[in-house]
Automatic annotation (TrEMBL):
Residues 96-105 have a biased composition (Polar residues). This is Transposase TnpC homeodomain domain-containing protein. It comes from Haloferula luteola. Residues 65-105 are annotated as: Disordered. Residues 35-74 form the Transposase TnpC homeodomain domain.
Length: 105
């Protein structure tokens, strides 16, 4: 009969050391998972879904006042209302301006 090879005692000691460390490492991972979960809750949780009061004021002002006016043109020329719009019919300067009346004759 052939005798089995003697076990390597150094390898067995190293394996035993690693087996003893496993529960401590698992406990550390569980602790870090709890820390991550609490930080995620703090960062993304329902308590952070509140609106900023300044943002509400901006929304309210826009509703009350309508949309903000577009900024004025930067060119030095000032134009009368209605002039320069692409859909407006050209004005004829030889005729006096007419006013529209809702009354009928």
């Amino acid at each position: 009969m052939v005798e089995p090879a003697p076990p390597d005692l150094a390898k067995l000691d190293a394996l035993e050391t690693e087996v003893v460390r496993i529960p401590a490492l698992e406990a550390e991972i569980a602790r870090k998972d709890k820390i991550i979960a609490s930080l995620q809750q703090r960062l993304f949780g329902s308590s952070n879904e509140k609106l900023d009061p300044a943002q509400l004021q901006l929304l309210f002002d826009e509703i009350v006042l309508g949309r903000p006016a577009p900024p004025p043109e930067q060119s030095g020329e000032t134009s009368a209302p209605g002039e320069g719009t692409p859909n407006a019919a050209p004005r004829l300067s030889c005729f006096p301006p007419t006013s529209r009346s809702s009354s009928t004759r």
